[in-house]
Design a protein that fits this description.
six-stranded antiparallel β-sheet, single chain, alpha+beta, five-stranded antiparallel β-sheet, 2 domains
């Protein structure tokens, strides 16, 4: 009976050893690592099965002796191998290093290895070394890809910043802001150009506020379709054409008709929206026309409303009907806002929501604080549009008590 029990215990220990060996081999495959020993005095080298896989070597050829290991190492990494071996034969602590090898006969696939070694000690000193070899090629490749992606992203950001700087400089050269607030005998004018947050979405929004030879004030805003330098170039053509045509003294609806002819025949595959008006500084009557633009907002006695638009379609459309002219007389305390669609449109909300926000914020803007009032309005409606630029032109009429001297 004792013999039977002993045999069973021996068989159990052998089964446990086999199971442990299987699990160890599985762990080495999952981690792509193996163990190795080099005995300095005898020259004996022992490798686990996974080390053969790492080096791409046929197990029938046996492990690579330590003196021949250098033949597989990349020449640039020989220093790392030398320092590793020198450190392990002189010390008692494990040391590690990373270097690259060529699999096979030293001309095959390049692999990144991490090697951790410690000395095999005897009473007379180290007699060899043993340790773990891990193939970290995949990890290093992923790190290099991440590093390269970061480098490319940084370069792209730098290019985008430079492009944005160039485009904004061009816009400023083409569309200089007015020198402060424009003061008229009975009205004040302020404008804002709000560039898109994304460089690629800088577009063709523009404004104009300038006196005409007959004493009226030309007020206009517009938006040319598209983004980037082509849209900015077309915007410049359209705006400069308007400035020249305005010198004729013709009314706004006639100017729009001429601009429509220009867009249709000279700016192919282009459309644009616009509002053009002439403000009489004495009577405060604004005679205006529109071409597909959102209606201006008038704030009077604390109530914001959208003006009824005269007939007109966007520039570049083949429309037989004439552009109509409307007149709006501004009263003391009034505020009139003209703006392009980039002010109210967002991908994340309906345009009517944006219009409601503008109308609510406009009630707190007055001629007395026109400049800071516009800044507050822009902040309350969500700040710059990430997807599109915008122009905002405001006409504020001082209340009667503000017009009195002293």
């Amino acid at each position: 009976m004792a013999e039977v029990i002993g045999a069973a215990e021996l068989l159990g220990r052998e089964s446990d050893a086999e199971l442990l060996a299987v699990r160890l081999a599985h762990a080495q495959r999952l981690g792509n690592m193996g163990w190795a020993e080099w005995h300095l005095h005898t020259g004996e080298t022992i490798w686990s099965d996974q080390v053969y896989v790492i080096f791409g070597r046929d197990p029938a050829l046996g492990p690579i002796p330590l003196p021949e290991l250098a033949d597989l190492v990349e020449p640039a990494d020989m220093g790392a191998l030398d320092r590793l071996l020198w450190s392990v034969v002189r010390g008692i602590e494990p040391v590690q290093a990373e270097f690259r090898i060529r699999r096979g006969a030293g001309t095959g696939e390049l692999r990144d290895l991490r090697v951790v070694l410690e000395p095999l000690s005897a009473p007379g000193g180290p007699v060899g070394m043993h340790g773990v070899i891990q193939d970290i090629t995949g990890r290093r490749r992923a790190e290099r890809m991440v590093s390269e992606s970061r480098r490319q992203l940084l370069e792209a950001r730098e290019r985008a910043a430079e492009e944005r700087h160039v485009m904004l400089a061009m816009r400023e050269a083409i569309l200089p802001g007015p020198a402060g607030r424009l003061e008229l005998p009975h009205a004040r004018i302020a404008v804002r150009y709000v560039p898109a947050e994304k460089t690629a979405n800088l577009g063709g929004d523009w404004f104009e506020a300038a006196p005409t030879p007959d004493g009226r004030l030309l007020l206009a805003i517009g938006d040319v379709s598209g983004h980037g330098l082509p849209a900015i170039a077309r915007m410049a053509q359209l705006r400069h054409a308007l400035v020249g045509l305005a010198m004729t003294g013709r009314p706004a609806h006639r100017l729009l008709a001429w601009l429509n002819e220009l867009v249709m025949h000279q700016l192919k595959d282009t459309t644009a929206t616009a509002i053009i008006g002439h403000l009489d500084p004495e009577t405060r009557v604004l005679a205006w026309s529109q071409a597909g633009n959102l209606a201006p907002v008038l704030v009077r006695d604390g109530v914001a409303t959208r003006l009824t638009q005269p007939r007109g379609v966007l520039l570049g459309a083949d429309w037989p009907g004439p552009y109509e002219l409307a007149t709006t007389r501004l009263l003391p305390g009034d505020l009139l806002l003209m703006f392009t669609d980039g002010l109210v449109e967002r991908r994340t909300r309906d345009i009517d929501v944006g219009l409601d926000l503008v109308m609510a914020a406009a009630r707190d803007v007055s001629a007395r604080d026109l400049e800071p009032g516009l800044d507050r309005l822009l902040a309350r409606i969500g700040g710059p549009n990430p997807e599109d630029d915008a122009c905002l032109l405001a006409v504020g009429v001082p209340a009667r008590e503000e017009e009195r001297p002293g």
